[in-house]
Write a structure and sequence with these properties.
Distance between the termini: 24 Å
CATH topology of the largest domain: Gyrase A, domain 2
CATH superfamily of the largest domain: Probable tRNA modification gtpase trme, domain 1
CATH class of the largest domain: Alpha Beta
Radius of gyration: 17 Å
Number of helices: 4
Shape: globular
Number of domains: 2
Strand order of the largest sheet: 1-12-2-8-11-10-9
CATH architecture of the largest domain: 2-Layer Sandwich
Number of strands: 12
Structural class: alpha+beta
């Protein structure tokens, strides 16, 4: 029996609450049960960089606060020698990566059980997030290919800009499971005037 539970299990979904003018300008949708892997190594080491690209199919992002995508996988720069990989659960790419990196100096840590992803969007998503986040989220600063570590509503998070959601531009918020319920409730409260929807979770990217 599958005993996994979303950290939002105590919030009944879906929720639809129009704001001023009966509009809904913000939405939230959890993307739970994904693979989250923290990777550390030397990007200047050809064998290390090559092993990652071969196993995941994504070249290591070298520029600060950038993220690369392929298929249902993303790889986010966290530090000069650290990245966050997020992808579907049940695929063998992480095991392939572990095998490729085995003879090399590296650290590969599965942190899937401790994190979840909240995707937010809508015409007001930047304004809602900016009300409690020090990061500059203007579109000309934080756009395609961008990611960043920051804080929102007292929670440490990673923001990942999403350009391929069929509903329009969006943002993935990677947050610790223990803060997810708090963050969602805060977002709903912050978006009350704009109107919001808390949608049922989806398992795909």
């Amino acid at each position: 029996m599958n005993s996994r539970q979303s950290p939002l299990i105590e919030i009944e979904t879906p929720i639809h609450r129009p704001g001023a003018g009966s509009k809904v300008n913000f939405w939230i949708q959890e993307r739970p049960f994904r693979t989250h892997v923290n990777l550390r190594g030397n990007p200047e080491e050809h064998a290390f960089a090559g092993a990652v690209t071969q196993a995941i199919g994504i070249p290591l992002p070298r520029d600060p606060n950038t993220c690369a995508f392929k298929d249902d996988w993303s790889m986010c720069w966290l530090a000069p020698d650290e990245w966050l990989l997020i992808g579907p659960q049940g695929e063998d790419k992480t095991q392939v990566l572990a095998d490729q990196l085995a003879p090399l100096h590296h650290a590969l840590t599965d942190i899937s059980g401790g994190q979840t992803v909240l995707r937010v969007g809508g015409s007001a998503f930047r304004d809602v997030l900016a009300s409690a986040c020090p990061l500059d989220l203007h579109s000309w600063v934080f756009g395609q290919g961008a990611c960043a570590q920051t804080m929102i509503a007292h929670a440490n998070v990673v923001f990942i800009f999403v350009s391929d959601d069929p509903r329009g531009e969006a943002l993935d918020i990677v947050v610790r499971r223990s803060f997810a319920d708090h963050l969602v409730r805060w977002l709903m409260d912050a978006a009350a005037e704009e109107g919001f929807e808390l949608l049922s979770p989806v398992l795909s990217r």
